[in-house]
């Protein structure tokens, strides 16, 4: 499947033009060679299925679509204008690749694995405050901006917020699908939205509704997926799979169902000790171990090789040592509803508020404290400690957050970086 798509890309003049431009940028760095450039591309494509979407190619949703202005933002997001390739392979970035922003904590569902539960409730940022944040994120070269929540569609100003981000970044909306209409999909796309991630945990209605604790959850999700795909938005089915549900037959049924609905990708998320799961006593049947991750990665690779399903991605692979590692505070970060900066959606550490300081300053300080991308999920490593040190009030304060991050710095790089170094 990928061989045919690569041949298609090889005769695409836009791809050739972009690669030539990237080569000129990187070749100013003595540490760069065409061999290393090819090696980087091979690592990016390893285990992935390339998807042609409109006039772009989706190599990995870890990154923006290719070629695009947002992808150029991604490769030039470094601290200095010289030696760009070297800075990239040592993860010396000026911004995360992706920043998720929680537009609201409001949600009509009560998912048992919700990562946002148990955090201090504060006032939402206003339309103008979010627009200011988006401007700063783009100036520091954040290439993917994810609009999440809660349920972001509960914001009355969602269209104005989407419109506040230009094509220097790729914009993805994450939703349960509730109140996602054809009219909204058309408007969102016209205002610059690239994709939609819609939660669907099972192709069996009763199972999904039980997980989301809402009797309309399945119908809302299915309707939204169909609408998003039909109206030209890159459509991702986001599914949380528990350890005991890593079943080949069950997952391939979900992949087939997603394809029937028109989805372009199925992204399998791992349950994380965060939010509701911090309080759950026995979670051995829920959380992954080494064998369950290995099994899930094998399923991803096999499904992608067949070419019969949407693009399949898993956090188990993307964030593994063999790929990019855990990017909390380095490749990915999160801003809460009230404007507090976290390393990621699942790590409730407060590194300052964007209403008081620039995002760039706060992120640089956090990034310096955290260090390299990590081998293994940072949330799984520190969240119990965060809970114990927070006295029940999350997020953890900045001072204690910095202390904990300093104790958990990684000296080792994930393979993508290590091999290019």
From TrEMBL:
<dbReference type="GO" id="GO:0046872">
    <property type="term" value="F:metal ion binding"/>
</dbReference>
<dbReference type="InterPro" id="IPR007197">
    <property type="entry name" value="rSAM"/>
</dbReference>
<dbReference type="Pfam" id="PF04055">
    <property type="entry name" value="Radical_SAM"/>
</dbReference>
<dbReference type="InterPro" id="IPR006638">
    <property type="entry name" value="Elp3/MiaA/NifB-like_rSAM"/>
</dbReference>
<dbReference type="GO" id="GO:0006783">
    <property type="term" value="P:heme biosynthetic process"/>
</dbReference>
<dbReference type="InterPro" id="IPR013785">
    <property type="entry name" value="Aldolase_TIM"/>
</dbReference>
<dbReference type="InterPro" id="IPR050377">
    <property type="entry name" value="Radical_SAM_PqqE_MftC-like"/>
</dbReference>
<keyword id="KW-0408">Iron</keyword>
<dbReference type="InterPro" id="IPR023885">
    <property type="entry name" value="4Fe4S-binding_SPASM_dom"/>
</dbReference>
<keyword id="KW-0411">Iron-sulfur</keyword>
<feature type="domain" description="Radical SAM core">
    <location>
        <begin position="93"/>
        <end position="308"/>
    </location>
</feature>
<dbReference type="Pfam" id="PF13186">
    <property type="entry name" value="SPASM"/>
</dbReference>
<dbReference type="InterPro" id="IPR058240">
    <property type="entry name" value="rSAM_sf"/>
</dbReference>
<dbReference type="GO" id="GO:0051536">
    <property type="term" value="F:iron-sulfur cluster binding"/>
</dbReference>
<keyword id="KW-0949">S-adenosyl-L-methionine</keyword>
<protein>
    <submittedName>
        <fullName>Radical SAM additional 4Fe4S-binding SPASM domain-containing protein</fullName>
    </submittedName>
</protein>
<keyword id="KW-0479">Metal-binding</keyword>
<dbReference type="GO" id="GO:0003824">
    <property type="term" value="F:catalytic activity"/>
</dbReference>
């Amino acid at each position: 499947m990928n061989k045919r798509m690569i041949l298609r890309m090889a005769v695409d003049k836009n791809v050739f033009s972009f690669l030539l431009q990237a080569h000129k940028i990187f070749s100013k760095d003595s540490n760069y060679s065409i061999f290393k450039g090819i090696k980087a591309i091979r690592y990016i494509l390893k285990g992935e299925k390339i998807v042609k979407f409109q006039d772009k190619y989706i190599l990995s949703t870890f990154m923006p679509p290719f070629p695009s202005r947002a992808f150029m933002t991604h490769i030039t997001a470094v601290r200095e204008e010289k030696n760009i390739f070297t800075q990239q392979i040592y993860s010396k970035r000026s911004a995360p690749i992706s920043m998720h922003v929680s537009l609201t904590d409001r949600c009509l569902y009560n998912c048992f694995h919700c990562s946002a539960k148990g955090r201090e409730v504060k006032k939402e940022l206003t339309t103008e405050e979010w627009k200011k944040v988006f401007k700063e994120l783009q100036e520091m070269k954040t290439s993917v901006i994810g609009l999440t929540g809660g349920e972001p569609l509960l914001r009355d100003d969602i269209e104005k917020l989407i419109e506040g981000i230009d094509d220097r970044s790729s914009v993805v909306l994450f939703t349960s699908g509730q109140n996602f209409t054809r009219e909204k999909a058309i408007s969102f796309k016209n205002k610059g939205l690239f994709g939609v991630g819609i939660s669907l945990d099972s192709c069996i209605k009763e199972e999904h509704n039980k997980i989301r604790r809402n009797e309309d959850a399945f119908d809302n999700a299915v309707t939204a997926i169909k609408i998003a795909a039909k109206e030209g938005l890159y459509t991702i089915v986001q599914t949380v799979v528990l350890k005991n549900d890593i079943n080949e037959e069950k997952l391939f049924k979900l992949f087939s169902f997603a394809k029937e609905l028109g989805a372009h990708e199925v992204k399998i998320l791992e349950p994380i000790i965060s939010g509701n799961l911090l309080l759950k006593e026995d979670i051995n049947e829920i959380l992954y171990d080494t064998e369950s991750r290995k099994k899930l990665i094998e399923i991803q690779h096999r499904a992608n090789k067949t070419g019969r399903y949407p693009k399949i991605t898993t956090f188990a692979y993307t964030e593994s040592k063999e790929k990019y590692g855990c990017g909390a505070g380095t490749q990915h970060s999160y801003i809460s509803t009230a404007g507090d900066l976290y390393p990621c959606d699942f790590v409730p550490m407060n590194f300052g508020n964007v209403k008081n300081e620039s995002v760039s300053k706060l992120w640089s300080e956090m990034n310096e404290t955290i260090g390299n991308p990590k081998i293994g999920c940072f949330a799984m490593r520190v969240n119990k400690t965060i809970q114990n040190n927070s006295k029940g009030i999350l997020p953890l304060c900045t001072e204690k957050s910095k202390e904990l991050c300093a104790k958990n710095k990684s000296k080792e790089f994930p393979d993508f970086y290590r091999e290019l170094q």
